[in-house]
Write a structure and sequence with these properties.
There is one protein chain. The protein has 734 residues and is α/β, with parallel strands linked by helices. Among the domains are: 230 residues, Dimethylsulfoxide Reductase, domain 2, CATH 3.40.228.10; 128 residues, Beta Barrel (Barwin-like endoglucanases). Helix content is 31%, strand content 15%. It has a seven-stranded mixed β-sheet, with helices on one face. It has a seven-stranded mixed β-sheet with strand order 26-21-25-22-24-23-27. Strands 11-10-9-13 form a four-stranded parallel β-sheet, sandwiched between helices. Helix 7 packs antiparallel against helix 9 and helix 17 crosses helix 18. It is globular. It starts with a strand and ends with a strand. 58% of the residues are buried. The structure holds ligand MGD (2 copies), iron/sulfur cluster (SF4) and molybdenum atom.
């Protein structure tokens, strides 16, 4: 009998844009992928990665059953029972002998793209009871969490640019033409930028590289890596100096304005220009344009976070939005309201603090319940009381993605025990004693817990699994649930326990019995049932029937192209969680950090510095095993400006040796004026030629690991975020 062909709709989980996909499924295979033209948010947009959605499922290197490492170092497939027994045998003695602090956890980026990550990691970490928690957040957006924590009282209150209504967008350190956007979920980000221009608006890009986004912009300004805080302070200075501040309806909700005015005195554009290489007149001009635009948004992304003054830079982005009255107004930057979350009834809360504990070796503060991943290697390789002896990784590849990964790679080899929840035997998991592979994305349901709270328009979508699970495979929720049980030693149906806990909270509010509510819960899987409860009691929820037409999982199941929940609405003051219930514009840690920035004005300029870059067909480190995404010319090149190439006698196509404090590597030179003089660029996520890795396609296109060069000893002090841009390097011909 011929295979039946059908159409399925599904949210793409591969980046933050949350596009709707239309899949053609023939038998048990996804045979074609296109953008879902009826999707309420993405309207048919798709990128080359989304187009390969089905290929992850049939990748021959993708693990379907667990692997256990044998004494000779080889990984061998075993049954699930054997694998979980090996986890128990590995973890238990360490927990008993050294306590939970000896077990660290590293959570990687795809956790924010899976339902299991959104729902089962918190209970797992709680069960582990360790404070040695690390994640990809501290090689990414932690500075934004911290600045928003201080400003708005919650690290999750992150305003996003209202792309569809703004008249003027100033974008720093973001390249959505390649990345498809980040901390601003906007399917077809490029199309939304072009629409700004089409309606008579403008967008300006600040970046040390002339990216595709910069090419499309009305104006591109080169900036010295790591110096955006100076540029932005120069703009703040100008707003006060030229009396251009206009807080509008925010006036009663802002405290600390005078302090910012005082701090800005120290950063006249004429003084900061020499540090950031943006002319003083242009800095003043940008401030004037921002103030004059009917609506405007300042948006900074990873290039403003993964730098020494990351938190200060992220803060200044929103200071500018506040000073020009653009925070929380249509066309400015606004707070989304996701369907699984609730609105607050009034402003005010506990506020945001850091440093509830500190890392053992370097003493860096805890932030948002975790420690900087830049200290992970030293926590493992430094002996003494509290040393990390075992590691759990879930959806992470820190050997390619975190600073001084050479040191981390060596540290992982010295662990007493390591377990990884991951579908690949890759650069990191090759160190694992046990690898537990989750189902591929075609076989799991999807709801974006993280990104619907960052979307430039409120909407909700749920996708059921497209293909049935193969025999003898496990869903990620089940894997994480088993790990929880191994750690706690407690029996029972953990899924039902979690659901019961969620329902008891709701039952109190509704004055009903949890058991009665349980009967009304919809959903085929454990994650789906938890989602149903969150949706029904969320901002648009049906409250189990109390609100007619309210949202529920059933409503989303009935709407395969998503449910539009409207343009973003103002949320100040309700969203504010600061103790004062106001926007606290300048808290003491930020003022103190500003003093440090002031001192940095007089630092000597470094010589050559390294920055990263992203390519449309990459996804951090883990999709280079998809043939369609790696074909063509080698993309892992060291971009060098022609002036630097001439000075250093580097020829296009030749090899160069790049050396930093942390390490050295050799890469192929690409001479191009896309990078500014004094700056070289190498993408991250490559270096697939390590022994023991099972990624046949990636290994044939290995590239080099740029994080061999990044330095784990330099972090943004307020957030602990790694510095991955602006690394001092020396380059010479090989
Ligand atoms: N130099 C430099 N370094 C960087 C960056 C940079 O710009 N420059 N960017 C940083 C950023 S923003 C990030 S987010 C990090 C990413 O850092 P990581 O999260 O550590 O690395 P990824 O490359 O995203 O690797 C994801 C891992 O998850 C696995 N995986 C994929 N899907 C699933 C799944 O459904 N379940 C499970 N359990 N596992 C899955 C993959 O096989 C892979 O091992 O890298 C950072 N590193
Ligand atoms: N195709 C693709 N898409 C992705 C990813 C991917 O790996 N590939 N990764 C996903 C992830 S995890 C994330 S976090 C997002 C990131 O999304 P984006 O933040 O848009 O990431 P990038 O494309 O790296 O853009 C960062 C830009 O900052 C510039 N830059 C570097 N240093 C500085 C600086 O000091 N100042 C300024 N102003 N600019 C600087 C770089 O030249 C680069 O153009 O992308 C996501 N989407
Ligand atoms: S832009 Fe992101 S979400 Fe959209 S298709 Fe591409 S990878 Fe998927
Ligand atoms: Mo990221």
């Amino acid at each position: 009998m011929a295979d039946v062909t059908r159409t399925a709709y599904r949210t793409c989980p591969l980046c933050e844009a949350a596009c709707g996909l239309e899949l053609t499924v023939t038998g048990e295979e996804v045979t074609a992928v296109r953008g879902d033209r009826e999707h309420v948010f993405s309207h048919g947009f798709i990128c080359p990665k989304g187009a390969t959605f089905g290929r992850l499922a049939d990748d021959p290197d993708r693990l379907r059953r667990p692997l256990v490492r044998r004494p000779d170092g080889r990984h061998e497939e075993v049954s699930w029972d054997e694998a979980f027994a090996a986890v128990e045998a590995g973890l238990r003695p360490i927990l008993e002998r050294h306590g939970s602090q000896a077990v660290a956890a590293y959570l990687g980026n795809p956790n924010v793209h899976t339902m299991a990550g959104g729902l089962y990691l918190t209970p797992l970490l709680k069960a582990l009871g360790t404070r040695a928690i690390f994640s990809a957040s501290t090689v990414d957006q932690m500075p934004k969490h911290v600045s928003c924590g201080y400003l708005f009282g919650s690290p999750l209150a992150i305003p996003v640019p209202d792309l569809d209504r703004t008249d003027f967008l100033l974008m720093l350190g973001a390249n959505p033409w390649e990345s498809n956007g980040s901390l601003a979920t906007a399917a077809d980000f490029p199309g939304r930028l072009k629409a700004i221009q089409a309606r008579g608006g403008r967008f300006v890009v600040v970046d040390p590289r002339r990216t595709r986004t910069a090419d499309a912009a009305d104006e591109h300004l080169f900036i010295r890596p790591g110096t955006d805080a100076f540029l932005l302070f120069g703009m703040v200075h100008t707003l006060f100096d030229e009396e251009l501040t206009a807080l509008g309806r925010l006036i009663p909700y802002v405290s600390g304005l005078d302090l910012v005015r005082e701090l800005a005195v120290g950063f006249p554009p004429e003084r900061v220009a020499a540090v950031c290489d943006v002319p003083a007149e242009r800095i003043r001009g940008l401030a004037r344009e921002l103030a004059a635009a009917p609506t405007a948004a300042v948006y900074g992304r990873i290039g403003t976070c993964t730098v020494e003054f990351g938190t200060l830079t992220s803060w200044l982005v929103d200071v500018l939005n506040v000073l020009t009255g653009n925070l929380d107004r249509p066309g400015g930057v606004m707070f989304p309201l996701a369907a699984h979350l609730r609105q607050h009834t009034e402003p005010g809360g506990k506020g945001f603090t850091v440093g509830r504990w500190h890392s053992r070796v370097r003493g860096l503060p805890e932030v948002k319940g975790e420690l900087p991943v830049a200290v992970l290697a030293e926590e493992i390789d430094t002996p003494g009381e509290g040393q990390v002896r075992a590691l759990l990784t879930v959806a992470g590849n820190p050997v390619l993605s975190t600073p001084n990964s050479g040191r981390l790679d060596r540290a992982l080899a010295g662990l007493e025990f390591m377990v990884s929840v991951d579908p690949y035997l890759n650069e990191t998991t090759r160190h694992a004693d046990v690898i537990l592979p989750p189902l591929d994305p075609t076989r799991k349901g999807h709801y974006d817990f993280s990104f619907l709270a960052l979307a430039v328009r409120n909407f909700a979508a749920y996708s059921p699994p497209v293909l049935a699970a193969e025999p003898d495979t496990l869903d990620e929720c089940d894997i994480l649930a088993r790990l929880i049980q191994i750690v706690t030693g407690r029996p029972g149906d953990l899924h039902e326990q979690l659901l019961g806990g969620a329902l008891r909270k709701v039952a109190d509010v509704l004055g009903q019995e949890a058991d009665d509510l349980r009967k009304k819960v919809v959903g085929d899987g454990p994650a789906e049932r938890l989602l149903d409860v969150a949706l029904r009691t969320g901002a648009y929820g049906d409250w189990f029937g109390a609100v007619p037409d309210g949202l529920s999982l059933q409503r989303l199941l009935d709407a395969p192209h998503g449910v539009d929940l409207g343009a973003l609405k103002p949320r100040i003051p309700e969203v504010l969680r600061t103790p004062s219930g106001t926007i606290e514009l300048c808290t003491p840690p930020l003022a103190a950090e500003t003093a440090r920035l002031r001192e940095a004005l007089d630092r000597p300029r470094p010589g050559l510095v390294l920055i990263g870059r992203r390519h449309l067909r990459s996804n951090n480190s883990w999709m280079h095993n998809v043939p369609a995404l790696v074909k063509g010319r080698d993309r892992c090149t060291l971009q060098v400006h022609p002036d630097d190439a001439a000075r250093l006698t580097l020829a296009d196509g030749a090899s160069a040796e790049v050396t930093s404090r942390a390490g050295s590597l050799s890469a192929r030179v690409e001479v191009t004026d896309q990078v500014m003089p004094g700056v070289v660029s190498l993408p991250h996520g490559w270096g697939h030629d390590l022994p023991g890795v099972r990624l046949a396609v990636a290994a044939a296109h290995p590239g080099v690991n740029s994080n061999v060069l990044t330095d784990e000893l330099v972090v943004d002090p307020l957030s602990g975020n790694a510095v991955l841009n602006g690394i001092p390097v020396e380059v010479k011909p090989v």
